[in-house]
Specification:
This protein is an alpha/beta fold and 392 residues long. A hairpin with a 2-residue loop joins strand 7 and strand 8. The C terminus is likely disordered. InterPro entries: MoCofactor_Util/Proc (IPR052698), XdhC_CoxI (IPR003777), XdhC_Rossmann_dom (IPR027051).
Length: 392
């Protein structure tokens, strides 16, 4: 996507109109993930790819038509289509591609997006790629197709543009923020006024950010389960342990990397290299003070999203004492989730991993961890802990 975006921004600054084809959904063994893009310019130049060559010839002609006529189009390619072999998609996958005309007057926020990408600031572009007539009379605008190509941009604390409805903008912004935080692009579907249902509008969220990191210290069986659920949540997961016999890629196939090093030494090196930020989650599962105290003392002094440590209450009390002796302040110690996880009553490594993930998600969105039935107000809004249902 980077090559296509860079060329898009260059043409945009020059005042040119171009056609942008973006993969918005895939099934089975599709050759490219959502977000892959191909740019076609008025002079016939092509930048980027959506399938590694499978459907580009057909898509090129479609893009030229959209560029000339300006009408956005959502196209599906797959082997089940009558013309699948004609366009060359023989890999067995299915992909949907949204083709739109982009020009400065229709996408004034593109400069903001480009600036955010250069600075590394997380940014999301929400585009309406599908609109139907709705299941009931009066549930859709008079011209549903008029919603196609509308955009909402999340750039830092700003929300720019509109999808056509304040309620739809609010719902899409909240859910797009969740995808952005997880570092994932994907599809959202709502009613035309933001109702959470399948018919109405289909929105594609292009998330421009690096995935958040999860670092799991301690190559134990619980670490394998935490690694799996961390990857499922969209984290780039690292497992680190000083014991080479346990820290192996074979034992942690879902991890992005497995490192053999002392935990505090590895964390310090990552901090020095600038590869740790405020989204990072630290899970210390070592059960050994010579490993966990130095790495926790280091982590608690930095503004990370989550720092948790496994152990019994006796281990927890002893660990707190050692951390205070190591110079960790009371305020810093208050950030430690120990014993790690929420009280779900789980016993197995997998159940424990769910409790850890639930606590990380609750911390991220300021959730209370309580049953939704006990709360009032928007389910997806911030600060669930402040929305308890009044007794009566």
């Amino acid at each position: 996507m980077r090559d296509a975006f860079d060329e898009l921004h260059r043409r945009w600054r020059a005042g040119e109109a171009v056609a942008l084809a973006t993969v918005v959904a895939t099934w089975r063994s599709a050759p490219q993930p959502p977000g892959a893009a191909m740019l076609v310019t008025a002079d016939g130049a092509v930048t980027g790819s959506v399938s590694g060559g499978c459907v580009e010839a057909d898509l090129y002609e479609r893009a030229r038509e959209v560029l000339a006529g300006g009408t956005p189009e959502l196209i599906r390619y797959g082997v089940s289509d009558d013309d699948a072999f004609a366009v060359g998609l023989t890999c067995g996958g299915v992909l949907e591609v949204f083709v739109e005309r982009i020009e400065p007057i229709g996408f004034p926020q593109l400069g903001t997006v480009a600036g955010a990408r250069r600075s590394g600031a997380p940014t999301a572009v929400v585009t309406c790629v599908g609109a139907d007539a709705g299941d009931e009379p009066g549930t859709a605008p008079a011209d549903p197709a008029g919603r196609l190509g509308r955009r909402l941009v999340l750039a830092g604390e700003r929300v720019l543009g509109s999808l056509g409805s304040e309620r739809l903008d609010a719902a899409a912004a909240a859910d797009a923020l969740g995808l952005l935080t997880a570092g994932r692009s994907g599809m959202l579907r709502y009613g035309y006024d933001g109702q959470r249902r399948g018919s109405g509008v289909s929105l594609f969220v292009a998330a421009y950010t690096t995935p958040p990191r999860m670092i799991v210290f301690g190559a134990i069986d619980f670490a394998a389960a935490v690694t799996r659920i961390g990857a499922f949540l969209g984290y780039r997961v690292t497992v680190c342990d000083a014991r080479s016999v346990f820290a192996t890629a074979r034992r942690f196939p879902e991890a992005d990397e497995v490192v053999v090093d002392w935990p505090h030494r590895y964390l310090q090196a990552e901090l020095d290299a600038g590869r740790i930020d405020g989204r990072t989650a630290i899970c210390v599962l070592t059960h050994d003070p010579k490993y966990d105290v130095p790495v926790l003392a280091l982590a608690l002094r930095r503004p990370m999203a989550y720092v948790g440590a496994m152990g019994s209450r006796r281990t927890h009390d002893e660990r707190r004492k050692r951390l205070r002796e190591a110079g960790v302040t009371v305020e810093q110690l208050a950030r430690l989730a120990s014993p790690i996880g929420l009280d779900l009553g789980g016993r197995t490594p997998e159940e424990t991993a769910v409790s850890v993930a639930a606590q990380i998600v609750a911390d991220r969105w300021r959730g209370s961890g309580r049953p939704l039935a006990e709360l009032a107000g928007p389910i997806h809004g911030p600060g669930q802990a402040d929305r308890a249902v009044a007794a009566g």
